[in-house]
Design brief:
eight-stranded mixed sheet, globular, alpha/beta
């Protein structure tokens, strides 16, 4: 389990932008992206739309999808093209990873958000950034890394809420949201890059290398085994049904008892909304509380189960059936990350950042109780860019015949 939850009192980490440090890190960033994330090149499409909003003096919120851990670093290329550093709302755990990261992240424009509770400091900082209009504010709409470039998960209502609040505070009474879609294309030898990972996964399963099977079937077989192991762990047997049905049954099996215990049997919302409610409730007594070791250990086990739900939620049931090179790559990366907490980089990747049309948010627009039209418009724009960006491939990968 990656360490994304901390049972410590939260303290807001504000931005402390340093132009000098930002320039130095921007200079070494391409090398880091290549070495740590396999990024060879980055292309920006629609930059003129963002530039026009900035030249008009608008307060700007950028709402990208969140495919890979390197997304915030990749967006720096867009920042360079419009000659404006970005202010990035980042989960608190990013600042807790190391002292180095806690020092550097605020100085290149990042500030923290506490996802397990109400964070008024972060909200005020975000709204203030949009009101001033100096640095575009980046809020990842899905809220977590999905490793699914061909699928959008639920877009949260936070960006629309902050845009409305900023519009009310601005003299001109408006702010704008630019949906942004980041797509990655693999441009190398797919078979060559995947074989070592698949063989290592088979080794972890105590299997002989499944060399008698085509690589595509080996990937599907490994996925079935990983799901089956979790079903045996929690359900004591593997289940019949489609992959999607089995995933949903396991998710509900994990969440329903916790919701009965912690949230008065409230089961509404998608899996991640349910997970967030439960994390908030479970953590509340762990922070500064006087819990016994047994009770604290029990809550950590429950939080580990919620982490598993997040992992399961990121597996679309039919994602690999339309087997593009990137879908296959993302699936194997997800296997490796779920087994080891780390996915190795696969070189070379080409990233395309597409900027959508500005969505104007007026202070006269009141937030509806449900079905926020601004959030719906953000999603519609991102879905259109998801489709249009498929044609942006520069180089066809090799080794894609996995039969």
């Amino acid at each position: 389990m990656q360490r994304i939850i901390f049972d410590q009192p939260y303290s807001f980490v504000p931005p402390r932008f340093s132009p000098l440090l930002y320039r130095v890190l921007s200079w070494i960033l391409p090398r880091q992206l290549r070495k740590d994330h396999g990024i060879r090149s980055i292309e920006c499409v629609g930059t003129e739309k963002l530039r026009a909003s900035l030249e008009a003096g608008n307060g700007v919120i950028l709402v990208p999808n969140h495919v890979r851990p390197c997304d915030p670093l990749v967006l720096d290329t867009l920042a360079k093209e419009v000659s404006r550093p970005f202010s990035v709302m980042s989960s608190w755990h990013v600042f807790m990873d190391s002292r180095f990261q806690r020092f550097v992240a605020p100085r290149i424009g990042a500030f923290s958000i506490y996802r397990e509770g109400i964070d008024r400091g972060s909200l005020k900082c975000a709204i203030k950034a949009v009101v001033k209009g100096k640095f575009p504010l980046v809020i990842f709409g899905e809220g977590f890394i999905t490793r699914s470039n061909d699928r959008l998960l639920n877009i949260r209502e936070g960006p629309a809420f902050m845009a409305r609040a900023a519009a009310k505070a601005r003299e001109d009474g408006k702010s704008v949201i630019h949906p942004v879609f980041i797509r990655y294309f693999f441009e190398g030898d797919l078979r060559k890059t995947l074989l070592p990972v698949v063989e290592e996964i088979e080794h972890r399963l105590s299997w002989q290398p499944q060399i008698h099977l085509p690589l595509g079937e080996r990937i599907l077989k490994a996925g079935a085994a990983l799901l089956g192991l979790k079903e045996i762990e929690y359900l004591e047997e593997t289940r019949q049904g489609t992959f999607r049905e089995r995933l949903q049954h396991l998710i509900d099996h994990l969440l329903n008892p916790l919701e009965d215990q912690w949230t008065n049997s409230r089961h509404d919302g998608d899996a991640m909304i349910r997970v967030k409610r439960l994390r908030t409730a479970i953590l509340r007594g762990m922070i500064g509380g006087n819990l016994s070791k047994a009770e604290r250990d029990g809550r950590w086990r429950q939080l580990a189960d919620l982490y598993l739900v997040q992992q399961l939620h990121c597996y679309p049931g039919d994602y690999i059936e339309s087997a593009t090179p990137e879908r296959i790559l993302e699936t194997v990366e997800r296997y490796e990350e779920d087994l080891t907490d780390v996915a190795r980089p696969h070189y070379p990747l080409h990233a395309v950042i597409t900027v959508g049309d500005a969505i104007e948010v007026s202070c006269k627009l009141k937030r509806p109780r449900e079905n926020d039209p601004i959030t719906a418009e953000i999603r519609k724009s991102m879905e259109a860019m998801l489709e249009s960006s498929k044609s942006s491939r520069n180089i066809q990968p090799t080794g894609t015949d996995l039969s």
